[in-house]
């Protein structure tokens, strides 16, 4: 038996990952037993043992590390909007939790005379980048974040890389595209509308578009996100050649192209439920975001995402709309 | 009166900076009163009030922050070799100290309802970069450190940048070239020999060269280093446009060119005191280092270094050899 821990296991991606792991498709981890840790869980939740607690509790991380999981998915974070509004909370949840986790895992590594080296898959973000941007961001583009969220994720990448180089853990940082279409309610992320303008119309509800439809952005579905995580858990990390942060594949399109895809799938009625209501604050934040990538390394390493926005919408309809 | 604090004020650069500040040449800081903090100080030391303590003592940093210095130079660090050998100490001294310092300064900022915003000048390093390198590293080259020292410095840059973006401090990270010729004894840095092969022969002593003389590297004198720090303390940080880490100017040359410069200044007798004794460990580390830069931003911003290695040697002879 092998064992997996999902920090942030109560969140949208954490729950979908737990469902996916329960299907037994994670290569290299036979008879996988899954533990989820989060401040709370939806009911009914995904399969797996539930531990309720916060990653800001260093004592909890020490106890979890002592269980010596084979693979740890660290998804726990507060989103960009909240990290910008609550500076303290952002650095504690998004950065210091990684430090305490790594220190706790290193302690287990040392106790086992180096035998214990868990795979640690961390969800970083394209927010580690800051403008000015080229048309397409390649794998050599510098990380110069212009938000607290981005700075916290980038600092985690540095720590995870150095602890991995030293052999204490075997880590990867996955710079996720904006995940779209998110099921459920809008969240505090400034990117929330990218999902809202698809999700709400498909559910017969009104949606607000706070930016011009010329805005271009970089997307992947929740299904791609859990696919990235599973692929990273099974990857031969020698192939990373010491650069353990990866820009992941996604699909780049404008909001107009998103809306056109919605029209083709759900008709003009759906599109008519989108109301333009410009919001200068959101526009200012979104203008600082990357628009397109050329993620050659991740593609070479076998990471896969959607190749059209229609495909992203169809994934939402198949996986989430019916529920 | 304005007040400056030098963390790491007992070290080589800290002492030279204190001497330089005592001459009153720091623009924008009239009647400068200088405080030095370090674990120990040379005797006789540079002018300034001395506080003995470690930057790993968060309580001390809180007390220092409460004094609301106008400008703080954070030079305190353990060097690359020691950070690689002592993982714990490296992260505590080189990274966590910055976190506690920033948190303490932010607390003062909040106590003064935002009135207190100290200038904070941090000595980062070209160790934030990792190979493979282009022939010349430009200002857009990514930070992907391959040492603990480099990862710690890069993490500090991210924190300093975000605390500055939020207006809690007004910071700059200076990615110093390898400082050469260092006076005094060799230290634990793997780069120590770059100074040793000049300093020891000029003092009539034998020097060890552990790498082939084809090795190219990036140098600036201690005098340039204190010049960078003074220039950064007085710089209009609006000019940085949110990218607060700077690659600084220096001089790129091979070890053979260093030795040729020594020959022109001090003759063949001096050169004959250098003994080649290859050290595979040092060679492996040095092969991972940058060789040359095109630091256009810093040059545009008025930072200046030497334009020949002879000039670097002459600086050592004028400033340090006589003592």
Briefly summarize what is shown.
The structure is a homodimer of 323-residue chains. Helices cover 42% and strands 17% of the residues of chain A.
Using only C-alpha atoms, the radius of gyration of chain A works out to: 19 Å
Most extensive chain contact?
A-B, 23 and 23 residues
Name of the CATH class of the largest domain in chain A: Alpha Beta
Number of strands of chain A: 12
Number of helices of chain A: 11
Mean pLDDT of chain A: 95
- H-E string of chain A: EHEEHEHHEHEEHEEHEEHEHHH
**Which spans of chain A of ≥5 residues are poorly predicted at pLDDT below 50?**
none
CATH architecture annotation of the largest domain in chain A: 3-Layer(aba) Sandwich
Report the portion of residues of chain A in β strands: 15-25%
Question: Main β-sheet of chain A, in a few words?
Answer: 7 strands, parallel
Give the neighbour order of strands across the main sheet of chain A. 3-2-1-4-5-6-10
CATH topology of the largest domain in chain A: Rossmann fold
What general outline of chain A do the C-alpha atoms trace?
globular
Quaternary state of the chains: homodimer
How many independent structural domains of chain A? Answer: 2
First-residue to last-residue Cα separation of chain A = 32 Å
Classified in CATH, the superfamily of the largest domain in chain A is NAD(P)-binding Rossmann-like Domain
Helix content of chain A: 40-55%
């Amino acid at each position: 038996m092998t064992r997996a821990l999902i920090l942030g296991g109560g969140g949208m991606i954490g729950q979908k990952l737990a469902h996916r792991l329960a299907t037994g498709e994670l290569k290299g981890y036979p008879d996988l037993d899954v533990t989820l840790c989060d401040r709370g869980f939806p009911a009914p939740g995904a399969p797996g043992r539930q531990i309720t607690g916060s990653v800001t509790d260093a004592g909890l991380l020490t106890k979890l590390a002592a269980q010596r999981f084979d693979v740890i998915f660290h998804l726990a974070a507060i989103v960009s909007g909240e990290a910008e509004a609550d500076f303290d909370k952002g650095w504690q949840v998004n950065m210091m939790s990684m430090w305490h986790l790594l220190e706790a895992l290193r302690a287990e590594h040392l106790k086992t005379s180096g035998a214990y080296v868990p795979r640690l898959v961390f969800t970083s973000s394209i927010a580690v980048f800051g403008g000015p941007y080229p048309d397409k961001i390649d794998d050599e583009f510098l990380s110069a974040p212009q938000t607290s969220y981005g700075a916290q994720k980038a600092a985690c990448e540095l720590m995870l890389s150095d602890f991995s180089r030293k052999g204490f853990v075997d880590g990867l940082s996955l710079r996720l595209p904006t995940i779209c279409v998110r099921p459920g309610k809008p969240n505090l992320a400034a990117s929330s509308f990218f999902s809202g303008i698809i999700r709400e119309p498909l559910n017969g509800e009104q949606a607000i578009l706070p930016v011009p439809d010329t805005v271009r952005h970089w997307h992947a579905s929740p299904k791609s996100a859990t696919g990235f995580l599973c692929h990273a858990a099974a990857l031969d990390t020698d192939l990373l050649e010491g650069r353990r942060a990866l820009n992941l594949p996604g699909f780049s399109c404008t909001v107009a192209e998103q809306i056109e895809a919605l029209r083709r799938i759900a008709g003009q009625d759906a599109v008519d439920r989108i109301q333009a209501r410009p919001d200068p604050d959101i526009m200012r934040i979104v203008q600082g975001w990357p628009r397109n990538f050329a993620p050659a390394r991740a593609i070479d390493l076998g990471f896969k995402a959607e190749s059209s926005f229609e495909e992203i919408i169809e994934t939402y309809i198949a996986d989430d709309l019916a529920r």
